[in-house]
Specification:
This protein has 141 residues and is mainly alpha-helical. The chain is built from four helices and no strands. Helix 1 (6-29) packs antiparallel against helix 2 and helix 1 (6-29) runs parallel beside helix 3.
Amino acid sequence: MPVFTHDQLWTTGCLLAASGVCLGAFGAHGLRKVVTDASKIKSWETAAHYQLLHSVGILVSLAMRASDRGASSPTAATPLSLLPARLFTAGTLMFSGSIYCLVLNPARFRWMGPITPLGGLCMIGGWVALAMTNTGRAAAP
């Protein structure tokens, strides 16, 4: 069974978007009661912003994939066409997730520091993969 099918990635993208809104709101209204360091609050804001942006990236890449398949099932496409959404998912979980953990409890989650840039690389890879999936498309009239 493949890792993260089209439908699972769609659900994941929606849940990441919803939780991104919640975490962004918490960062704006509740985090200051727990964290006083302004740089950590800014890091939280960045994590929430990138989470929202890349959850939309997941959904856009899946919508493009479905439109490429026309009337056929989007699940019939090649696994490679899921690469952008998979990279965005992994990147969001590693990048934003590690930042949330490091802001809330830096001593306990210190080991997650090196994970943050790996998540960023996955996000970048997702955008590159999305660009590559557009290669060979017929231009709109």
